[in-house]
Amino acid sequence: MSRNSRRITFHGGAEVSLAHESVADPGEGEVLVATRLVGLCGTDLHAVQGDHPFIDLPYSPGHEAVGIVDAVGEGVEGVAVGDRVVIEPNLYCGTCANCLAGAYNICDELIVFGCQSPGGMSDYFLIDASRLHAIPANLPDAYAALIEPLATPAHAVAKAEVSEGTKVAVLGAGTIGVLVALVSKARGARQVVITDTDPMKRERALRLGIDVALSPAEFSQQTADAPDFDVVLDCVANAPSSAQAVGAVRKGGTMIVVGVPAESLMFPLHLVQDRELRVLGTLMYTKDDFEWAMEFLAGRPAGLDDLITSYYGLEEAGAALAAALSGAEGKVVVTPDAVLSAGA
């Protein structure tokens, strides 16, 4: 039996609309999920401001979705009605060279649920069962909401080959930047330095156990004469941050572009050549990164749930977007249900 559902659409800026729709029963291999909560992320903020090169407006958001299985189609295995699940939103072809090599995050035909196809900011949504991961019963919603955001840093840090003894800098102390820094520490980095223009974000990073937090100006002064970082991960991805990242990497080191640049940038290529640097992009994640994120969060790291600073109902999605755009919030979450507590 079909379900009545509300769906949110972002039109650009702070313009948001809510529509009513009927969601069909799941077909073969599909799962009907009742949304429990959806996170807003930097991708959404870039998109509504027209700064995301791969998302067209309007779009229906919700790639950071946690829900409960409401119904399953024929042939579905691995999840059952009543299971709490998180979506892995990369929808891939399975037949291109990258998919066959296991790198489906860079599928030639990649579509992202909640970016290029309607997402989970709704009461119900349908998705292929292969895109769902069951959430451990002992993992509260506030931590489950961080599985998808944490998988991106897990992939980036693995790509950077951070290991015991690596000296790491992370540019940008938003949610993703802080998680990149925490993953770097979990992978054994001997020192992690994070930068941000916002002193409150720097203070939050220090509370979560990051070794050093600096302003971009302080970081530039520190690295101007002695670039000694093995790895710099740029979560800002604009012209000043990319130049700063390259300038801070030691000879033979690695720079990872984590953030999404809004446009082409002037880049200090002469330093890349002269210092024989590796400059790599990173996109999303694969199953291994998702599973690493779930295992890490299962340990309930202290303070991580505090990254979520506010919850809004589905019909308050406009207010949620405005709050996220203000820059004064951490992670903003939208839920069709009543406001959830961190321990829910």
Order of helices and strands: EEEHEEEHEEEHHEHEHEHEHEHEHEHE
Distance between the termini: 29 Å
Q: State the shape.
A: globular
Oligomer state of the chains in this structure: single chain
The averaged pLDDT comes out at: 94
The CATH architecture assignment of the largest domain turns out to be Alpha-Beta Complex
Specify the biggest β-sheet.
Answer: 7 strands, mixed
Counting helices, strands and paired strands, the structural category is alpha/beta
DSSP strand count: 17
Name the CATH superfamily classification of the largest domain.
Medium-chain alcohol dehydrogenases, catalytic domain
Strand proportion, as a percent range, falls in 25-35%
**Proportion of residues in helical segments:** 25-40%
Q: What's the number of structural domains?
A: 2
Low-confidence stretches: 338-344
- As for the CATH topology of the largest domain, it is Quinone Oxidoreductase, Chain A, domain 1
Task: State the CATH class of the largest domain.
Answer: Alpha Beta
